[in-house]
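Researcher: Please predict.
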Amino acid sequence: MKKFVFLMICMMISYMVSIESSAATNYTSFESITLTEGKLLENYTKDDYTTYYKEVDKRKFSGWQVYKVRSNVKVSYISETLFSYYNDGFTPISYNYKLDRKVSTKIGISATGNIGMKGGADKKAFKNNLEGSLKLSGDYQISTEDKEVYDISLKVDPGTQVDLYTYGEGKLTNGVGAYYYFWIRTQRGGFEIFVVTTEYQRLEKKRI
């Protein structure tokens, strides 16, 4: 009888996770991110900066000179794997998974050189209103906080693996900028803004 109860427990596993996600805020640490063209700011080379800085080195009385290397490039990504389960037994296993997830923002930014940023971990912005000089579309706005609940029931067959991960798509704009005050350049570096346009959980089942 004890063996039968133990077998039933092994064949039905319930899993519940509650997480907080800042969506795009930490996009540079996503598991994978693919651009349809160009490259991320973190992959700019010294030669890239030498070429692009020529576009913003013309001095002005006050304000930003900006040069967009890429604008609204389509991006796909996997931010994190929520669970991965492999059944190496001989009988199917019923698996119940409940995810309670809070999303606080859909915008991520990064900068290099001495371009400054302000704000906390979940809500950042460039100093001196660089966003205003970039003339971004309405998509590049901080979103309100959302709460998502997923309840998934599935059966993992023998010799198969099931992966649940967060997949999304977005748009990315990056380039270089220089800030001038009384014709004196006070800041110069690279900038990047990433916005999530859609995000959902994707379930994949494959035979091992």
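Model: Helices lie at 2-11, 46-53, 130-134.
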